[in-house]
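#struct-pred

JT: dropping the chains for the assembly here, can someone run the whole complex?
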Amino acid sequence: MACVYIPVQNSEEEVRVVLDQLPREATDIIDILKAEQASLDLWLIIAREYFKQGKLEQFRQILEEGSGSEIDEYYADVRYERIAILNALGAYYTYLGKIETKQREKEEHFILATQFYNKASRIDIHEPSTWVGKGQLLLAKGEVDQAFSAFKIVLDGDRDNVPALLGQACVEFNRGHYSDSLELYKRALQVHPDCPAAVRLGIGLCRYKMGQFEKARQAFQRVLQLDPENVEALVALAIMDLHANTAAGIRRGMEKMQRAFEIYPYCAMALNYLANHFFYTGQHFLVEQLTETALAVTNHGPTKSHSYYNLARSYHSKGDYDKAGVYYMASVKEISKPLEFVFPYYGLGQVQLKMGDLRSALSNFEKVLEVYPDNCDALKVLGHIYFQLGQTEKALEFMRKATKIDPCDSQAFLDLGELLISSDGGAALDCLKTARNLLKKEGEEVPIEVLNNLGVLHFERGEFELAQQTFREALGDGIWLAFIDGKEKPPSIDANASISQYKDVHIFHQLEKEGHLVELPWNKVTTLFNLARLLEQLHNIETASILYRLILFKYPDYVDAYLRLAALAKARNNFQLSIELVNDALKVNNKCPNALLMLGDLELKNDDWVKAKETFRAASEATEGKDSYATLSLGNWNYFAAIRNEKRAPKLEATHLEKAKELYTKVLAQHSANLYAANGAGVVFAEKGHFDVSKDIFTQVQEAASGNIFVQMPDVWINLAHVYFAQGNFALAVKMYQNCLRKFFNNTDSQILLYLARTHYEAEQWQDCKKNLLRAIHLAPSNYTLRFDAGVVMQKFSASTLQKPKKSVDEVRSTVAELENAVRLFRQLSAASSLHFHGFDEKKIDTHVEYCSHLLEAARVHFKVAEHEEQKIRHKQEVARQMALAEEARRKAEEQRKFQLERRLQEDELKRVRQQEEQFERVKEQWKSSTPGSKRRERSEMDDEEGGNGEKRRRKGGKRRKKDKYSRSRYDTLEAEADMMEDQEELEDEDANTNYREPTGQMNEQDDEENVQDPLAAAGLEDSDAEDEVAAPSTTTVRRRRAWSESDDDEQQERQPGSSPVRENSAELRSDGEGREGGDKVNGEAALDDDDD
Amino acid sequence: MKLAGLKSIEDAHEESVWAVTWVPSTETRPALLLTGSLDETVRLWQPDELVNQGKMTGHCLGVASVAAHPSGHIAASASLDSFVRVFDVDSNNTIASLEAPPSEVWQLRFNPQGTMLAVAGGGSASVKIWDTTTWNLFATLSIPRPEGTKPTDKSSSKKFVLSVAWSPDGRRIACGSMDGTVSVFDADRGKFLHHLEGHFMPVRSLVFSPVEPRLLFTGSDDTHVHMYDAEGKTLVGAMSGHASWVLSVDVSTDGAALATGSSDRTVRLWDINMRGAVQTMSNHTDQVWGVAFRPGGMPGRLASVSDDKSISLYDYS
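RK: done, full complex below.
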């Protein structure tokens, strides 16, 4: 039994103080100590004993008494013990300050501690233990550098001072110099091999921090051997076990944690880890309790942060976002650098995202990314946030990075794909495909939204087969398959009730009666709608209509299905049904702008102008003027109104046009890429005669419109052709009309054929004109205007042929035939006019008949003349031919002569040369004998050469001549043509005298829009205007006729805005958008549920 | 069922080919193909090589329709100048030139018995029936005007008759008009029976099934083919698939298949039982104005003519 003996003053006796049985009241001991004037080390021993027994108050009392001024005086020369007492007090207050959580008291403790140490220093400035104490204090206060210098002072004096070594090790550890720290710990251990287990703990921690886990583990285990109750070592080992991340490891770790908890229930680290564990096991109640305890027992920032984080996570998973947010925030506040502990930033970001605070969430996730630049979840969430903030580019960047980092993350590909949908369909398709494949590989079900979007993308790219497959995959099994595969057919209906075939849902009732399950899950509606839309595109209208009806049967509020059915009915000219369907849609939502706009279109088709305008206005109001289609429709309305007025009031026309332009411009201001508005603006410019401007606009629109399957803009082609026509560029106009007709209308549009005919008419290509008119008649047999026009063309053709100064018998013969046809046509029209109303004045037709008959007579005369003429011509031609032959013969003779001449000259020359040579030879021979044969050969070669050259030259000359002849002849014909034109003009003048005026010149001069708009009909009628002056018709007929030409206009203009395709498509796209939104939502949630571990 | 291309003649006519029909075989020769075109001629072709057997002129303006008498000796052609020319197939002699002003002429069809020729009368809102022995106008079957409309009403011109068809027993005549209604007449009594509604765009071609006398097929500009029960006034079914106007329909002799020609440049073969398209031929490069199954025995033949000036012949099996 340990005991101390206090020597009794002035005697040999001692007071025995059993250390286990120290009196409860410290004053008793103090009295003894004071009375006996015990040495100060006894004071210290007893105080320490109190401390060991946890009697801190007594400990403090003794020491304070022992450091009082009395003692100082009395024991003035006992320096070391006094210092020791002061240091003990300093250490005590340091400890108090360290564990105190309240800031003010903490500081007070530290101040006291400082005072004691300073006092100790005053006694002896060189006492190492004081410096060690000071170092500890500074360490506790977090002033690491000063602590370092304090310890250094000690170590400089005694490099083996164990407490200083430990202190310095601690300093180095805190500074992150783990290897230095380790060295110091090791030295301490060498100097003092029996030092407490805590030193080995330090070694373990250093090793741990240095990543030497095995050695760390050994150190910790050694600690536990020495001190089985060492909580820190237990916790450290537990953490290491937990981090092993195996089931067994985690179990072992948790066991150790539990033991640590049982030994010492206030170790925050252990509490946090336990809480963490219970979070995963879902015992949120325990989590909260443990973390609250942890928070109460520690003020160590990172640990508190961890605790708050645990708490926040618990609330987060329970869905209490407010509380979670508060605790995350608290957790974040405890962290000085995100580098230390980044999870709460992530959690906070998630909560803020959930609460809609995008900007804050953004900054938090960015902090996460700073620490983990390759964290896919953070990248994805950031991408998501940037997308919601409208910074698509940045969003894409993040998403791309995420997919690059983890090419197996289906979610990342899904998100990226969805981001790309609006900007780059092809890339989006690739991403979604990858995502689908990944999901399939993982054995997960591909969400219907993904398949739906994939299908839509295929659809948009025109890959209908793939789109259909994808939609079917998305839809899976269901009643719709029976319809798609044509197993179930709609029953026959009364033909007279068939007017409402697209409203019939009888089939579904019947199927239900037969015991089939007619079900349609809500999440498949959009996909089914898209499939129906696709079937429409594939012209499988009937199946599409059944699917739409199925949607409506189960979901009678699905407005888009009504509108598509209405569009189908409209395409089939069934306006009554179409209007009914639109009204059904309006019953669901009487402000639905799409339905209103469609109704407006239908009302326009029904010629209900005032109503249509009101409907368009209502639609525009319903969208607060933001829907460009509504504005466009109003613009179109104004444009029609400008053109339509029977009496062309220039003022009214101008105001309407101005208004139309204003509206188009408004749309363009909102959406600078709106093709339809640009087209409209172009039309207005054309109306005002600014053809160059409108041509530019139309050309651009045309370029922009090609390349998207949903954009069908035949109007702009027609408009462009109109402009070319108005500018007199007939060839281009023809090409443009033909391309348009073929590309967009399958050559079925008689109106464009009429434009074509009109262009040929202006270009005086009568036969082409007639053929086109006949085609138009064939396409639109009930349009009698076309017949009239055909008559006019034949008449014109005949007249112009007859006016030719030179005409062959065949020409005149065909002229006669044409005239007979024309007469017959006009007579028929005349006869039919008694039967039908078709806008022609009988008298006028009669005039045409008369004129044609007159021409016919003339033609017959011409015919005879022509026959005669032809004979003459033939004769002349014969003469000419013979003359030509003679000429040719003469020319040939001449050539021959020339040739001969040349030849003779050459021969002469040769002869001369030969003679000379011969002479020379002779001379040579005379001189010396030689071989004359070789010379002769030379000569003959030369001969050949020259002859060849000559021939070549001649051939060249011949060619040149031929060319000359050709160009001359062409010139001749041109001249002849010019002559003919002159003649024609003269004749036309004459014609004017015979009460028939040519419209051509006039039209070109006028060049007003009427000409562009109402083609040949007007031309024909213009003709008769001239006649009317003579025929003096009643004014009513004129008006009526105008009305007719106007109604032609209407037809064309109604098509011109090309509005229906836009609407249909936009409706479609909108519904697609729904699907995508749905997908987004799911993804958003998924992102939140993502775990951060 | 299946179509297989046998032979195509490019530039068979100088212009768009608008009409086609088979002239039944006679004792002396096999069945021939008769085509009419915008180039104002009617031409005869010998299958399967489509050898040109003759070119017949005599029309002004385009030939809109051709029809052959069941005997195979006589044929008729109608053109935009509102004449019907009846001629001897082998000699090309004109037998008669028919006109009934102010009515124009569109589709024409001989009745199965060969006693009558029905001509769609266009704006006259009637079908003209000609006696094939005397070539006199036998009857005019007028579509009654909707009640309450005046003769001057604009809408009356919508009952413009475009197409005509005889039931296989010759007792019914159906005609299609511009506004999409189909009118059924009792041929014997010359009486209007009822309308068949469902189309709202021109019905350019219609044909009765040779097997089921009540079953009528109509092709319309609304891209649909409708199947009507012509007696029961019911719409039995609607078939969609063409991308543009259906210009011509014909039923195979076995009554199992339907062929259609369309502005979408294709010829489609439909299974009538399945009510679905089984095959699409896209060898033409322009609107297909006419399709015609060869009447009589095997092997089955289908001919099509198009705006691209060509004629195509297919094997049908």
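JT: nice. The longest strand of chain A covers residues 3-7. Residues 766-866+996-1049 of chain A form one domain.
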